[in-house]
Amino acid sequence: MTNTPTFPGTGGCPACVAVRDLPHGMAESGPDGIASLRRFEISLPAIHCAACIVGVERTLEATPGVAAARVNLTRKRASVTADDVPGMSEQLIEALTTRGFEAHPLDSAALDATRRDAESRSLLARMGVAGFALMNVMLLSISVWSGAADTTRDLMHWVSAAIALPATLFAAQPFLSNAVGALRGGRLDMDVPISTAILLALGVSLWETTQSGEHAFFDAALMLTFFLLVGRYLALVTRGSARSAAAEVAALEVRTAERIKKDGELETVPLDALREDDVVAIAPGGRVPADGCVIAGETEVDRSMLTGETMPERVAPGTRLHAGMLNLSGPIRLRVEALGEETLLHQIARLVETAEQSRGRYASLASRASQYYSHTVNLLALSALLTWGFIGGDWRVALNIAAAVLIITCPCALGLAVPAVLTAASGRLYRRGILLKDGEALERLGQVDTVVFDKTGTLTTGAPRLMEQEGLPTEAMKVAAGLAQGSAHPLSKAIMNAARNRGISPAPLEDVVEEPGHGTRAILGGIPVRLGRAEWVGNTAPPERTTTWLAIGDATPLPFTFEDELRPEAADTVSKLKDAGLSVQLLSGDSEAPVRDAAQAAGIPQWTALATPSSKVALLQKLAGEGRKVLMIGDGLNDAAALAAAHVSISPASAVDASRTAADLILLGDRIDGAVHAVRLARVARRRILENFGLAFAYNIVTVPIAYAGYVTPLIAAIAMSASSIIVSLNATRLGKEQPSEHPRGPDTGVAVSGWNRSSGLSLDAAHGPV
Q1: For the residues 762-768, what does the mean pLDDT come to?
Q2: Residue 634 CB: number of other CB atoms within 10 A?
Q3: What are the structural domains, with CATH classification, of the chain?
Q4: Active site (catalytic) residues
Q5: pTM above 0.70, yes or no
Q6: What mean pLDDT is predicted for residues 279-290?
């Protein structure tokens, strides 16, 4: 068993530790020339595959002055670290445009959602046009198939052309424009053979029509376009439209501050008007506007953005606070020490953003397969054209065969292989109370071998509960309840809940006063009583656990000890994940004793306490360096960077906005055992995707030689292509009918995992699947 309760050199304030642990260069300012670099954000609305990622990154990295470039496919943007010189942004966009990539400066965080909605509506409209035109052209083709000849046949072909040409050119615009951009940049991607097949089908059909040929293939061009649009739309839907977690973190920043002037009066100023050494007033319920040190007043603050722990912390003169923290109870004055990009809040946002971009480099199975597809298909079609043209001598026949080869190898089935499965999986997960935000995340989830839990609010309920204590007099409980009933402090609420559950009524008290940062005092029959912090009530040796103290007169203070209660399903969830062959760890910003107790209660052998946001990321990076595929499950703002850095991540619906946004999946209910369902389904979905790839490639192996030999017309090729797409889609629907296996297996092994049964409904069979 390996227990690592602390990180070396992390003594002192956890917030200061978090600042100290941030990766070098995060602020991109400082000595040794780092100050000359700047981060540029570029919107890339047209990218859609791994080839696009590679092309954009290589183009940017080849641009003079660029130090590094990362592409986030999900958010369709690039982050570039380059020399901070005039015109650099325009230079980067020009370089991308020259290579055929549509690129724009990134204006706002709302850009992604707006563009995604517009793209979705556009794809649906084009899909509708293609489908409607296809039905009409096929209806007109019935007369030709029935034996119409001469003038009647020519008329049907010309009417079909009038319908198909504008409809296809409009519906296929996403593929055509991407192909033109790729060719201008000297690249080949999947849209090049797709566009070639569509245009060739139209061109051959129009030529046949002008020559009074027997066959035209306008319906083939429309059918091809329709199924390709279906695949593109499904891919867009499954990718989701989550906002950036970094933007959610930055949203905690206040826009104005109450600055104290030299004459002592308050003035409301925008945040960018503050300067170092200014003094600001922060009222109860307000957020801290900047990093600084308290110079007057006492209160309690919510530090959960840093530690993830819900317990308020006492603040007195000399305490250092950070932007975004919430002042809970008393007015304070703060001397400003750091502003803007220098605050811990912005550094956490930068940490999250860096982690998001790193994970955005992940390429799905379909994207990786597509890298080799374009060249192969184009060479096959060109080979068929030349072979039949020179050997057969009839270039009209050769052109028809080349068109048939292009159409029959069009990647409809390949394009649907992943989106169809992800769409089915997304629906099933939703019915299980799990929201899938990113389609590629399901592929990553099927690969995990390690699960890392946060503690407070994830493995535990996040609310303190009064522990059972032997020898605690009932009268003391009554007094404590009397002092607690007028307070909104979490520990006071826990005392009231315990008293209510035990049928104990609060003692009648007089002159009840709550002192911010200390506790509550009152008079009981002329005797002063206090409930609060150890030093305030006269105790000098507080225990490790979360404790409040009750002092009645001069008597020895009595401790009231609290625990963060483990979720009822936590131990069972951990057990099932371990039975599935997954390694489980606990990672928390809480102190050693609560973390150790939670780990022991849940059955987790490895745990880490006092973890800061950056040290959590460091641990995940260490695991990744060991070859681990980590699933991170957390809910606090301090978990946001770790959630973004993990191979895949899950967050409860009760989590803060930044964590929900950084996570790939959201548990919509109040239970965490949905994570086991998600892992099981991810493994089944991955198997279905691989099966679909197998079906798609088997289809090509069988049909391409037949088309190459000249036995397939473009129309039959389109029908065959459509049939392969339907087969792949039907195979994907099997995902919703999976039944749990009685003998599930661990990941990538052939060894049966014990401890599972059909009643659990949570099989994790990776090798053979449900029986």
Answers
A1: 30
A2: 32
A3: 33-107 (3.30.70.100), 121-241+370-433+677-736 (no CATH), 253-340 (2.70.150.10), 462-566 (3.40.1110.10), 739-771 (no CATH)
A4: 454
A5: no
A6: 88
